[in-house]
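[Solved] Which block belongs to which protein?

Original post:
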Amino acid sequence: MNVELDTKVGELVMARPETMRYFERLGIDYCCGGHRSLGEACDLAKQDAAKVMADLATLEPPAAGVPSLQDWTRASLAELIQHIVTTHHDYLREELPRLDMLMGKVLRAHSPNHGELARVGEIFQALAADLMPHLIKEEQILFPYITQMEQGASGSSCFGSVQSPIRVMEMEHEAVGALLAELRELTDSYTVPADGCNTFRALYDGLETMERDLHLHIYLENQVLHPRALAMEAGVQA
């Protein structure tokens, strides 16, 4: 893929999955901000666009442990939705309680010596409080409507157009993205302090893994599912 400053970040990630980890290290938003050009994204992240371009030219192709992105533009929307639910929603439902347990242990043992942990705990609780009802709204409202639309059924809804729930979901994605950015900054990119125990390390490893999963999760919805659903509705209404 020929990369230019006007290349959309979301398109770049789809073509070259190895850029996900690189963008995450730099704070370049490819999920909620995947519609932005690379130049715009670099400006927002306060990164030198020329250096980013040079780094991308030498970035190694995907290696072990780097997820490969299926071309979801060729799959049905029902298949993409099923993937999102079984891969990302189910992961969060299993992982959030585990992280909550680790968070409690770390707060009790280390908060006296690490004042930032109180805010880390608050951010995690805010994430969990935002995410759990968000998953339910997608599974019970948005996803069934998109599936019915794809099957040729108009379906019944109180929102008139799929644009309405998509707008709400993307606003909630923005809120989650802001919390994740604050969490990364507060933890110095999940750096475990010198006196951190194994539980501390497990917590930060888990939080970083969750961040990566949420970035990919939001990317698939904002940059693939939602645009395709909107285009499908526009075609149906035309």
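(Second protein starts here: sequence line, then its structure tokens.)
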Amino acid sequence: MNTAFPRPDSARRVGLIIPSVNAVIEPDYAAIAPPGLTFHATRVMLRETTPEGLRAMNEGVAAAATLIASVSPEVVAFACTSGSFIDGEAGLTRQIGAIEAITGCPVVATSRAIVEACAALGLRRLALATPYLDVINEAESRFLAGHGFTVTAVRGLGLSGKAIREVPPAEVAALVRAADTPDSEAIFVSCTDFRALEVAGALEAELGKPVLTSNQVTLWAIFRALGVTPKLQGYGRLMA
């Protein structure tokens, strides 16, 4: 018997609620998550990464939570950065509360995870690298400013929907370098459908400061909710 795969009755199950177009987060977590965890995803329809498209997607989150609850997960992650910040902290708090009420387990969300990860690392000045349209970058900057962060620079690619997942890691790395500023304490690379985790560790070594990604901080928040502390090398100091 191949013991590399945890048995279903002993694994700790994690539920993911992700945008329908997302083709990055599941491979990321399959590649780096420690043994003993299994990830189970359900999707909500996202056609375009615009304020209107994100709010339409968010209307389906309750139904997705009902579906993922049937897996009996120990923790659920709403793993969509822009969907969790588009209506600010008030909207994020409502989302988390609604998912918790349906699933009956702890819930983490990507936008909350970046705030908490920065607090854990003592970071207040962030450069922001995203694949998004300007209107989404503006909403994210407001969200971060509302939590007391100074956003030193914003660089976006002007992309939406399926186009985001098609950006190769080398282009993600170039965007991060362009977003970095001398006065930033870290760079946050936003979007769970963006291939940033693959280059985060190398960029940290190159730039000499934390490079936080959406999938990285969400997984870190999942670990915290489960009370586990695996040390994953090569994916940034937050995971190490």
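Accepted answer:
You had them paired correctly. Confirming on the second one: The first strand starts at residue 12 and ends at 19.
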